[in-house]
Amino acid sequence: MAKTRSPLSEIFRLFLRLGVTGFGGPAAHLALMEREAVEKLGWLTHEEFLDLVGGCNLLPGPSSTQVAMALGYTRAGWAGLVVAGACFILPATLATLALAWAYVRYGHLPQVAGLLYGAKPVMVAIVAQAVWRLGRRALRHWTMALLGAACCAAAFAGAPPVAVLLAAGGLVLVIRLQRKGPARAAGVVLLPVSTVGGAAGLGLGSIALVFAKLGVVVFGSGYVLLAFLQADLVDRLHWVTGQQLLDAVTAGQVTPGPVFATATFLGYLLRGWQGAAVATAAIFLPSFFMAAMVGALAGRLRRSPLAGPFLDGVNVAAVALMAEVGFALGRAALIDGWSWALGLASAALLIVFEVNATWLILAGAAAGILLRSLF
Asked: What is the pLDDT of residues 83-137, one digit of tens each?
């Protein structure tokens, strides 16, 4: 991993901007980070970035947020990690908190359909470009390309993302070891999964325990988070209704940044401003420590004769998972002629003219609002 350090002001500006413009979910966030941190700023190579992505994908919690934190750690240590994580999380938290306030006051979410209608096609183009760039480096051999196709097929079939990552990494490791002859077996350290008993009330301590548990056991996308929230907050604790949960997840998805900001909305429903602050801190806090581990160990793992091949397989799977999510995002975003036009125009501007992705997202959102008001 590169040794050059970056000033905190540079980390602050980058991740605050990404936090404000990062619509579209983890795959879109990673595409933006790859474009900014690798292509424009040259903080690290494509291969090093893939190592961070692969390592964070193996952890529970919000993967793209952890990649942001790990990037900050590699550039400025713990201070960089805290600044990157806080700047990436804060815009989503504040936006979701505003929606929660409006929801409690008026009984519904403000209309955001136009913004998403225009922003999502741009994000599809950004994800497609990132998959192409990262894929060229991860799929360096026909066997890796074949593994990538298998991982993509498994993802489309509904296989858990972590299972796909582990299987791909294990397969490449076994193949490399067979080529080199007998080698020592390597142990795998698994993070313990904690459980939280039923809460007696709506105290801030109970809220903190429930959301901290989610921060260390939820693997995968926001849809996986929805399943855990349904099981805990609706079915077991009866803190919110199913409709309130769906509204909270919607708020987390329509705001930029991590979908895990859904916790802010739910915390506000449970205990107002204090509940929002506690739930947000609890669900994101574990990620700061796990991301630091990835940032610190990524370079050493790459040099290891056992971990290096495993990371190669994990990186292939990570690109395949990004492609699968990008395809799903495309199906949801490219729904008519106007959205296809926005997506294709964005792809052309990105590839041919290398237009700044941030301005493209803002322009797409503005165009979507205008189109929704006219038609």
From this structure: 999 999 999 999 999 988 988 887 666 666 677 688 778 878 877 877 887 787 7
**246 and 259 housed in the same domain:** yes
Spatial neighbors of 48 by CB under 8 A, at least 6 apart, are 1, 2, 298, 299, 302
Q: How far apart are CA 3 and CA 217, in angstroms?
A: 32
CA distance 131 to 326: 9
Q: For residues 100 and 104, what is the distance between their CA atoms, to the nearest angstrom?
A: 6
Cα separation of the two ends of the chain: 50
- In the chain, the largest separation of any two C-alpha atoms, in whole Å, equals 68
Query: Are 115 and 260 contained in the same domain?
Result: no
- Among 285, 309, 341, give the residue marking a domain's end: 285
Catalogue the E-assigned strands of 16-161. Answer: none
**Rounded to an integer, what distance in angstroms lies between the CA atom of residue 101 and that of residue 104?**
5
**Contact 343/125 with Cβ under 8 angstroms?**
yes
- Look at residues 262, 285, 308 and tell me which one is the last residue of a structural domain: 285
Tokens representing 218 are 């939820």
**Residue 235 DSSP code:** I
Residue 276, domain extent = 204-285
Q: Is 20 exposed, middle or buried (0-12, 13-18, 19+ CB in 10 A)?
A: buried
Instruction: Summarize pLDDT for 169-186 with one digit per residue, the tens.
Output: 889 888 887 776 544 433
Dihedral (Cα; 262, 263, 264, 269), 10-degree rounding: 100
